[in-house]
Each structure stands twice: as structure tokens, then as C-alpha cells.
Design a protein that fits this description.
Elements: E1 15-24, E2 27-37, E3 41-46, H1 53-60, E4 68-73, E5 76-78, H2 83-88, E6 91-95, H3 106-111, E7 117-118, E8 121-122, H4 124-137, H5 153-166, E9 171-175, H6 183-198, E10 202-206, H7 210-216, E11 219-224, E12 227-233, H8 239-247, E13 272-281, E14 285-293, E15 297-301, H9 308-316, E16 323-328, E17 331-333, H10 338-343, E18 346-349, H11 364-368, H12 370-376, H13 384-398, H14 414-426, E19 432-436, H15 444-459, E20 463-467, H16 471-477, E21 480-485, E22 488-494, H17 500-508
Length: 512
């Protein structure tokens, strides 16, 4: 159901998207999506991973051409064919990763490609003077002759916004601009956005953070599964309602097998396998305490960007922590790189199986033995017959459907690829296995098989950290649940203490 919001201050939107649809081979990314953006407002676009937010932004900025639908600017149809084309129309985007040149000065970055000239040469004094004036509009007073890299990320974001102002942007799109900023830097950015809003700019703000959404937004558009779920006045939408609308009801909640639920009273856990104290990384995770016991299936629940994956990557050494310490089996450990974690018998199945998991051109066998070979060392090749035996064993154990263990993994279905990646870590016989969205994008039967196997591993003593956006799955499978919100842990619950409603309330941080 779509809720229309009356906008009395401005009866006509500055930018309007009507019936936008976009498909890729095998994927319907956008389906009949609409959006209304008015001058003098901050309009936040929210949705889970895969909701279609990024695709919509790329359509709006000319990266993708929509299959159908219309974009209207000031009541006139437009069809940008590139980002530069969109900029010439007054639509500018500032991305999470600042797309500027850190080796150039602040002034050069603001005017790059449009340097003021005098007598055929670059007028450096004029450029620096104009750059200073543009930044002062944002109440930013810095040396514009200094290299951009000498300033923190928040200031670099302001430089990117100043560049947008310099090209006379009327619509400013901010795509996850706060993901790498600390609280003080976020406050600086928001003070700038409020001034731009007062000047009449239309701002489309994409974020995952609930607190930030309610701190800056006038209106919110929620997307889910490539469709617009609705458009709402921020003041009329509670946090709990927003989370409900973003997540929706999982159609296959009851399809998970009953054998995933075990008798909590019959389960016993060993001592803490791994403990972290004050583990954190600037812009990713607030210093957090964490522990997991031997034989425990610990679920991490929360929205995308809440800190779930960030915590997992710090525990595995995929990202380097700024603060905190880790102890494993009561011994201090440092996981500077994933190899350190692998050597400590920790495995990690990434949520991005195509880019950080499966090597699509390699065979099923080669993908399965990859982690074991990395731990063994490149100079001690695993004998081919052992590779075959291991691959055959886990193909059979996990029910991986493949014509042969020599079949390229890229030709397998998503569910069978995921099973092969699970096998990759199982052959290393890990003490702890981190599973980040192990059932995303795979069919119900494959989900059931994977989670049933994972549950049995826990009963045999393996510790498993389980991350999933499907809350019923987390509730059903986990022995204990840690709920994450806005880059920090906000609650820890034993099995049965949360249900479908109360977990949403904890995630939202608002029971109203």
C-alpha cells in the first residue's frame, strides 16, 4: 500500500520519477517505482540490501537507462545518458566513497574540468578565491591550497558538496555519505544540509541509519524488493513502523524445517571460545564487547549497516580494528589479516559470494580446497587425490548438485555455490565459523538444508556466528541473539526472549 503525502509548501515537485522499471538478465531490479522530490526538503530513501535504491540512483543520474517510465524535472521530461549529462541538468551526486583526487588541492578538486582561465592560462588566484567563497557558504574555513588528502573524510565530503554547488546543482543526491563518518563529522554534514535545505535545494539522502534518518529527514520513501512500498512524512512514521515496512513479512518463514529448532534445555555449551573487548573501527563499529561459547549458534540481528558485517570482518581480520582486543581460548590474539584468523581455526563465508567468495572460473574442487591450501601454504600443495577425496566427501555430505567436482562453480545455482563455499571452510575443521547471509538469494529447500547442517555442526561443538537479514530465520536458529543498531550492539537475548514483534522493537529502538 502506498501512502501519499500532501505537500502544501510546494504543490509541484522539482523532480518526479514516474513508473520507473529496470531489468537485468534474470533480475527485475525496479518495478514501476515513483518518487517525488520537492525544493527545500531532505527526502530519505530507505530499504534493505537489494531493495533497488542504488539502481534507482543510477537511473536518475544517467548510469542506467530505464526500461520504462519517465523522469520529470521542473515539469519537463529529461533523459540523462551519463553522470555529466545529469550534472548539466542540475542533478549532482556525492557518494559514500568520495570521488575526488586526493593528490590535488581543495580548490583544484572543486573546479576540476572547469578551471577559470585568464589569457588562456588557469587563473589560480580566481579559482582559490571562488573555492574559498563556496566553502564559506557551508561555513567551512580551510586552506583551499592544501592537498585534499590532508583533510579528514568529513571535510572531503564538504568539498564534494561545494563542487556540486559550483555546477549549479538544484538536486543533490547523497548516497550513504555518513557510512565512514563519526558522530561529530555527521553533525557537521547535517548542519550543512540544513543550510542547503533553507536555501531551497532538493536533497535526496540515502542511508541505513535510523537515528540519522529521524535527525535530518522531512519525508521518507521506503523501497522493498525493487518496488516503492510507500512515501511518508517523517513526523508521521514511527521507527517501528519504518522497520516493519522495510523488512516486510518473509513469505517463506514457515518453510524452514522444524528440525532447525532444537530443545534449548538439552543444549549445553562449553566455555567462551572467543572474547572481544572494546573492538571497534572508526566509521564502522562503535567499540563493542563480544563473546561466543563453544558449541553455540550466535545470531546477529539488525538492519543493513547496523554493524553486523563490520563486526564479523573485524573478528576475521578482513578489516583492521582501531580499538579493542581479542582473546581466543583465553589467549590474546591479533588478527591483522584473514590469514591470522584462518591459522586460529576461524572460517568466514562472506555475504558477497560472487566477489569475496566463489572464484567463478575455478572448479567446484578448486573452490572447496582453497582455504585449506591457504592455511597449508603455497609451497605445500595438497595432493590431487586428496583434493578429489575432500571435494567428493563434501559434495555428498552437503548435497551439492553438480555434474562433476571439476565443473566450474560459476555454472552452479546460487544455493549450490553457497554450499560449496560452506564446504570450503568445513574442510579446514574450524573451531568457529562466521556465516554472513549464508541463505541470501537461494531457494527455500537449499536454505533448509544449509541451516539444518549448520545446526548439527553446533551440536558437535563448533561455534557459529550467524548473520541474516531474515529475522524469523535468526529467531528460529539461534541459541543467543545480539541485536545491532547504528554501528553498536544494543541488546543481547537468550533463545525465546524475542519474537517477531519484539525483535523489531529492539532494532527500531522505539516501541511506539
Amino acid at each position: 500500500m502506498t501512502t501519499q503525502v500532501n505537500h502544501t509548501a510546494a504543490p509541484a515537485p522539482l523532480l518526479e520519477l514516474r513508473g520507473i522499471s529496470k531489468s537485468f538478465p534474470g533480475v527485475k531490479a525496479l518495478s514501476n517505482v515513483g518518487l517525488n522530490l520537492y525544493p527545500g526538503e531532505v527526502h530519505t530513501l530507505m530499504g534493505q540490501n537489494g531493495a533497488g535504491k542504488s539502481t534507482l540512483i543510477k537511473v536518475l543520474t544517467g548510469v542506467y537507462t530505464p526500461d520504462s517510465g519517465q523522469i520529470m524535472l521542473d515539469g519537463k521530461p529529461i533523459a540523462p545518458t551519463s553522470t555529466s549529462d545529469a550534472q548539466s541538468l542540475g542533478i549532482s551526486t556525492v557518494y559514500q566513497e568520495v570521488n575526488l583526487c586526493p593528490n590535488l588541492s581543495v580548490a583544484e578538486n572543486i573546479f576540476i574540468g572547469r578551471y577559470p582561465r585568464r589569457f588562456g592560462a588557469i587563473d589560480w588566484r580566481s579559482m582559490q578565491r571562488q573555492a574559498q567563497a563556496l566553502l564559506q557558504q557551508l561555513q567551512i574555513d580551510i586552506d583551499v591550497t592544501a592537498q585534499l588528502s590532508s583533510y579528514p573524510l568529513a571535510i572531503q565530503q564538504m568539498v564534494a558538496i561545494s563542487r556540486a554547488l559550483n555546477i549549479s546543482a538544484r538536486v543533490l543526491i547523497l548516497d550513504e555519505p555518513t557510512s565512514s563518518l563519526d558522530e561529530a563529522e555527521v553533525n557537521l554534514l547535517f548542519s550543512v544540509l540544513r543550510r542547503l535545505r533553507e536555501q531551497g535545494m532538493a536533497i535526496l539522502f540515502v542511508t541505513h541509519f535510523l537515528d540519522q534518518t529521524y535527525a535530518i529527514s522531512d519525508r521518507i520513501t521506503v523501497m522493498r524488493n525493487g518496488e516503492r512500498e510507500g512515501e511518508y512524512a517523517c513526523s508521521e512514521l514511527s521507527r517501528l513502523a519504518l522497520v516493519n515496512k522495510m523488512i516486510g513479512v518473509a513469505a517463506d518463514t514457515e518453510a524452514l524445517a522444524d528440525d532447525l529448532v532444537h530443545d534449548a534445555g538439552a543444549v549445553t555449551f562449553g566455555p567462551n571460545l572467543l572474547e572481544a573487548q572494546g573492538l571497534g573501527r572508526k566509521g564502522a563499529l562503535t567499540p563493542t564487547d563480544f563473546h561466543i561459547r563453544e558449541g553455540e549458534l550466535l545470531g546477529l540481528a539488525g538492519l543493513l549497516g547496523s554493524g553486523r558485517t563490520e563486526l564479523a570482518r573485524l573478528l576475521f581480520g578482513a578489516d583492521k580494528a582501531d580499538t579493542g582486543s581479542i582473546r581466543m581460548q583465553d589467549k590474546a590474539r591479533t588478527f591483522a589479516v584473514p590469514r591470522d584468523a584462518i591459522a586460529a581455526d576461524i572460517g568466514f563465508c562472506s555475504e558477497d559470494r560472487k566477489h569475496e567468495g566463489a572464484i567463478l572460473s575455478l572448479s567446484v574442487r578448486e573452490n572447496i580446497i582453497l582455504a585449506l591450501q591457504a592455511r597449508t601454504g603455497l609451497l605445500r600443495a595438497i595432493p590431487f587425490k586428496r583434493q578429489q577425496a575432500l571435494a567428493d566427501e563434501y559434495v555428498k555430505a552437503l548435497g551439492i548438485k553438480t555434474a562433476s567436482i571439476e565443473t566450474p562453480i560459476g555454472s552452479l545455482s546460487g544455493g549450490n555455490q553457497q554450499k560449496a563455499l560452506l564446504a570450503r571452510w568445513l574442510v579446514t575443521n574450524p573451531k568457529m565459523l562466521i556465516l554472513d547471509e549464508p541463505t541470501r538469494g537461494i531457494d527455500v529447500r537449499a536454505k533448509q538444508e544449509i541451516m539444518s547442517y549448520v545446526s548439527k555442526l553446533c551440536r558437535k561443538g563448533m561455534s557459529i556466528l550467524f548473520i541474516s537479514s531474515e529475522l524469523p530465520e535468526v529467531l528460529r536458529c539461534s541459541d543467543r541473539i545480539v541485536v545491532m543498531r547504528d554501528r553498536k550492539a544494543c541488546g543481547e537475548y537468550a533463545r525465546g526472549e524475542l519474537d517477531d514483534t519484539s525483535v523489531l522493537q529492539v532494532i527500531a529502538g522505539d516501541a511506539n
